[in-house]
Amino acid sequence: MFKKLVCVLCAVSISVCGFDGTFDIVNKDVFAATISEDEYNALVSKAQSMKSSYNSAVKKYNRGSIGFFDSVNSDNAIKLLKKGINIYKNNKTLKSKSYLKAVDKGDSVSAALKDSTSLENMKKSIAYIKECNDIRGKLGLDAFKVSDELMAQAQTNVNYAAKETDHAKDFDTAENLSWGYSDPFQGWYHDEHKWLNDAIKAGTYPGIENMDMYEIYKTYPAFFAKIGHYFNVISKTYKYTGFALVKGTKYGNGIAYSQVYTGVLDRGIMDFDKYEQRFLDYYNPIVNTINEYESLMNQINSYEVEQFGVGKKITKSKVTYQITSKTTAVVCASKKNAKSVKIADTVTVGGRTYEITEIKAGAFKNRKKLKKVVIGAKVSVIGKKAFYNCKKLKNVKIKSVVLKKVGKSAFKNTHKNIKFMIKKSKFKSYKKKIKKSGTSKKAVYKKF
Question: Which segments constitute the SCP domain (predicted)?
């Protein structure tokens, strides 16, 4: 049983059916460490050689449909999505522009998936066009053709519709909207077809069995508002389509869908099969590269956990270290009541020695009793807010000569007269890095 909400232009379909929420990107399985050391070294070498292509693939993936449209020079689609201008109406700002918040910003994968322009959402949308064409094929109707512009229209529309539960009305194309169905064609086609047949059998709307879509719209507008989506799906007038979906509505499974239709478009039109293949030619290499690299790293990480203790924590002399690789460890915490701390150059665990290369973000944050710190010779990174709000911290000696980064607010809210002892050879560059991290203007810097 489906509960219905109906607006003048579109039936809002709400179902309790679930959406699995899964996407094709990145296999997160953890692999058992059953490989030899030689195999491990080979995996590390391969991962290193793939790192650049992996980073490039992630960047493309996070650009979503903008990256795809860029790759095929679809300027009009990009103008709609990236600039938010209506190329059909004197470049006016789209009503839906403010809803395109995740477009082409290089966000994380999880953030990108929340926008209709994500590659995963576009892939699923193309699959829905195939379903629509399968329905039309069984009725002896021509398959809809597809264009980048219409796909972009649907993407702008559905971002708006997911939040506002309404049509944005930016374009002159016809549009079906649905909220909450696990399959929108269950509502747009199957349910509405049944309602039409039931009405014909019941004689509720005299003569409707002999009317076309326009005649039903003019004669029985209220009923047409319930079944108009069905006629869009089976229309002989409309020849071209675009489709989009996004998770973000409050109804049913949380998915909103938009399909746009037109019979008038003189550019960028492609047969569905060709369009789908063009998209997959862009999508598959990206996802395959990401999955291959992630698979390598999962195997590498699993081996390192088992063989090198990666992830294991150990506390020595009030400082907690965490092993991060075959040869390195980081400082991740300290005892809260520590007054003086010395960060070692190395730490030995299970007979293996690890260099201490980093002080993690927030490692000593809010240590109210901490007054003195010695930073080891191997530390190359002091993380964000590493010593934030250590108000009694007055003496810091930096033995390292490999320090590359001091994170934001690393020494903010420490003692106003804090003194830094810095190696003579690194004094100028380290002083600059430390000052940028938010130290007191009265801080003192000394060479040793």
Answer: 131-261
